[in-house]
Prior knowledge:
Elements: H1 3-21, H2 27-38, H3 42-70, H4 72-92, H5 96-113, H6 115-126, H7 131-141, H8 144-181, H9 197-204, H10 211-245, H11 250-257, H12 260-272, H13 280-301, H14 306-332, H15 337-366, H16 371-392
Helix pairs in contact: 1-7, 1-8, 2-3, 2-8, 3-4, 3-5, 3-6, 3-15, 4-5, 4-6, 4-8, 6-7, 6-15, 7-12, 7-14, 10-11, 10-14, 10-15, 10-16, 12-14, 13-14, 13-16
Amino acid sequence: MRGASVRVVGTLGTAQTLAWASSYYLPAMLADPMARDLGVSAPTVYAAFSIAMVASALVGPWAGQAIDRRGGRIVLVSTSLLFALGLGMLGAAQGLWLMVAAWLVIGVAMGSGLYEAAFSSLVHLYGHHARGAITGITLIAGFASTVGWPLSAWMEAQFGWRGACYGWAVMHLLIGLPLNAWLPNAPAVAKPANLNAKDAEHIDASPTPEVGQQRYATFLLAFVFAATWFISTAMATHLPRMLEAAGTTLSAAVAVGALIGPAQVAGRLLEFGLLRQVHPLLSARLAALAHPAGVAVLLTGGPVMAPLFAILHGAGNGILTIAKGTLPLALFGPQGYGARQGWLMMPARVAQALAPFVFGVALDTWGANALWLSGGIGLAACAALLLLRARHAVH
């Protein structure tokens, strides 16, 4: 990456870390004290968060279209203000409906300010060259839970859950807003007519399909993204309890869960290095197999295989996060990328909202055998990627 793109990746990656830490990773630390103070159950708080996920799905295509037209800076700056507003409303909420309204505002901010918007902003800037930058921001923002969970817990212990919400709101105004405002707004690469032979060869390797094929590919990608986000959210929500059902102790389950974050970063480093030389469809196919492989070794080998399961799941999930940005670019090109990304991710956001409840019911009913559900969904995602490759001869 050149100097300008390194600056963009650094600033945007930091802003993304803040956005993820103060939204997606917020309920894990604050749901229980929030529920006690407001006189509702913790599942009610998570239900409000699920409503925010649905709101983010609905706003995604609109945000992507705005980035296609005007670039990412104005959208992401507006998102910083929305995050601050929603978190401030959440901190001031005195009852159920005010809490739900606050989560709706946060959901709108998530739909226009998390990875999809960041990926679209990078494609607007760098076109076909955005793959390395997309990987770069996921490497940085991959530490959002590592930063967010301890910081939320510390602020809650010092100032209460309301003070934690206010603290995150202030950080969006003092940190996120200036970082997003620093994002260039004009494309930073030459037009396709001026690309060198190597770049032209790369573009020729990823032709835009005909209309019918494009719709077919869009359907398959939407399914893949929904399936993989269902798995990642289900594991993020239920991993310790699932590992206990598989026979591990609680302390071992917590220790094993701690392996997932580093494994995700390792997977992204692998994508940034070795797998960067291959088509993203190949790396996505390998990554989609990782969770089913982990399920197989855990359920056949027993608790002793739990660390290997965590490593496989984490590495695959890390690579698939990047694939959500690079696959649409490789298959369809940069034209209309933001709007397409919004539509592609709409089913994924809904699946994300449903995953904690659906997998929780499966876990209550089947115990550790609920993993066959997530493993089967992972295999279906891999099969869809194989169909996509065969249908469009992408290589």
